[in-house]
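Quick one:
INPUT:
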């Protein structure tokens, strides 16, 4: 199926365009705008509902045409008089974003002949459980706006606004923390702290979330908070954040969202590296998103002034 995305040299001219936008195991998505503009010169003037109807009409025509050809295919290629091969139009999509195989979003307006307004998202990073919900919500809304025709400048402003809220502390660290599980906490403990020592020695290769959880346990023990607050145990669901340089030289700190001691919260508020949180969690996802759209992500407010200087 993946070869549909390549222009077949044996039946096409060298400069022919391939209108296959995406293909999966048993599905193919075709870019239909060129043929619709050819058939309907006033395409841009038509209301969206009528455009959907005409798109479905063209899709059904090709569905029947290809299904009919399967009779010839079955006889000539497989030497069988009867078959169950069938092409079926699944849905009408007004716009879509294809990231990679099984990672996409599509704005469905008709599905099996029924009018709908549905955003179907599969496999994109912001939908995963280890992505902060507030940033996932931001990405989800931005994606919807792009699919519905928002311009780059409009999305740029939303990204700048979100960055400013994160850096100014308008979004809580609890909301920005990376959600994750701690599956092998004990496995990465090299040695517990001795008398007079503050921190546990962790083994080489310990994941950042595991080290962040161990550091949290060390802090509440050292600060005498363990009588009123819970240690992070193996198997717990936690969040963690990155920290700026601090007196304890801690790179990241984990916490239990439902049980944050005041002293831990004060320490996080003072040393949280909000810039790194934005860059490590949201920025790299946005850069990939912009690259896929053929856009350039520019968060420098002076960049445009520089290039427009006369």
């Amino acid at each position: 199926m993946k070869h549909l995305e390549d222009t077949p040299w044996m039946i096409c001219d060298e400069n022919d365009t391939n209108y296959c936008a995406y293909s999966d195991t048993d599905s193919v998505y075709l870019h239909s705008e060129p043929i619709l503009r050819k058939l309907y010169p006033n395409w841009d003037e038509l209301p969206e509902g009528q455009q959907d109807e005409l798109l479905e009409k063209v899709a059904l025509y090709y569905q029947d045409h290809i299904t009919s050809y399967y009779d010839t295919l079955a006889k000539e290629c497989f030497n069988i008089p009867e078959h169950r091969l069938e092409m079926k139009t699944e849905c009408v999509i007004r716009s879509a974003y294809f990231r990679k195989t099984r990672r996409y979003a599509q704005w469905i307006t008709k599905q099996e002949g029924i009018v709908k307004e549905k955003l179907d998202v599969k496999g994109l990073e912001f939908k995963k459980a280890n992505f902060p919900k507030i940033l996932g919500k931001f990405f989800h809304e931005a994606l919807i706006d792009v699919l519905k025709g928002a311009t780059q400048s409009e999305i740029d402003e939303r990204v700048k606004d979100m960055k400013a809220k994160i850096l100014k502390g308008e979004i809580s660290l609890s909301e920005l923390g990376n959600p994750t599980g701690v599956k092998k906490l004990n496995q990465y403990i090299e040695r517990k702290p001795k008398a007079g020592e503050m921190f546990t020695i962790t083994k080489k290769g310990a994941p950042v979330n595991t080290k962040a959880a161990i550091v949290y346990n060390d802090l509440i023990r050292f600060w005498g908070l363990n009588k009123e607050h819970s240690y992070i145990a193996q198997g717990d669901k936690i969040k963690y954040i990155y920290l700026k340089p601090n007196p304890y030289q801690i790179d990241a700190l984990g916490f239990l969202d439902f049980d944050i001691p005041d002293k831990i919260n004060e320490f996080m508020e003072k040393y949280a590296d909000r810039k790194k949180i934005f860059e490590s969690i949201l920025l790299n996802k946005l850069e990939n998103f912009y690259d896929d759209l053929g856009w350039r992500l520019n968060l420098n407010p002076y960049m445009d002034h520089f290039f427009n200087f006369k």
